[in-house]
Design brief:
five-stranded mixed barrel, about 90 residues, OB fold (Dihydrolipoamide Acetyltransferase, E2P)
């Protein structure tokens, strides 16, 4: 999984019906020292993460293993809101 | 998922029969500020996106979770036409 | 999917028996302006593409969704021979 | 698979219930000479690896093929603690 | 698939039991001209490849489509020993 920071939201009216009702959050990847990277993805939120929160994100087919994303065209999902990172070099 | 901009179309007569009738769009990835990146993929369009539109794209096995791509040799699909991006640093 | 150019062939006698009879083509990725990139993959050919042809290639689990690659240890397949690319910035 | 070094732990209270009880380790990738790279992922630990240990890590859907990760939204898992690397250029 | 060169072996006693008996080879990726790249992965060997041999490697879920890797936490497998590469720019 990847550590990220929620920085925004994507709005779309015309979409695959399987995406109906899903919150599409923009998540920028975090470096180990807590700085945000340029790389970002749009992820479905399964845990109610708000803007500015540090999150854990699963990608690929693993992103479809939550109750709200199962069998849907989703390749990134927020699976946790991070309380703390204990690591050498972490901020 | 990834944000992209539809910039063109691929035409192919000789192809795997499972691709018959599918629109193959060229999608360049977008940075968060809305500028287009060099990186691009060819994606099947499931929502009728036109040239110049900003879209959401799913990749990998998740690209096969729409009605028109299921069980087909497709690894990228346009799943939404983006109305608005609300994000720190977005254009 | 990715646009590529077939530039060669790989020959192997000792191999997993599920690869028996498969043509293994070397495909270099193409930029949007038609120039070849350094990046290349070895792909199974499902459409009879010859050296020098521009092709469409699917990767990952999607590469196993053709009749000849199903359930085999193959992660890249040529799915179409490209007739034309209509795109901003295309050659 | 990828060689990595366990450098830390991620703590999260609010998370997808399928992650309950899983140890989330931060693993930095190793170069062949044993130096740590900047690239890191958060992986579920299936073998009891401690901080500072060199490990083997599987990613993508293969990360869900252990008893503790099956069908869960997990895209990286530690599958072995490495005793020794015999390689040209290895430290 | 990717062309690689076997450069070493990984030894691990404490591991997921599904990896028992598998030979874990270190494979460095090859450029088209035959030079080895820095990028490497640890792959299960399904064809008896020795150190120094040029091999074909499948990754991701496709790496689980051989008899010895099926349903196991393995994301890279050697599927062939390469006899010859015929390509523009190949050594």
């Amino acid at each position: 999984m990847v550590l990220g920071k929620v920085v925004g939201t994507v709005w779309a009216t015309r979409k695959d019906e399987q995406l109906t009702g899903m919150k599409l959050q923009i998540v920028r990847e975090l470096a180990l020292d807590g700085t945000v990277r340029d790389r970002f993805v749009v992820a479905v939120d399964s845990v109610g993460a708000g803007i500015g929160e540090t999150v854990l994100m699963a990608q690929g087919s693993s992103a479809r293993q939550t109750d709200i994303t199962r069998n849907r065209p989703v390749d990134a999902v927020i699976t946790a809101i991070v309380d703390r990172v204990d690591a050498e070099g972490a901020a």
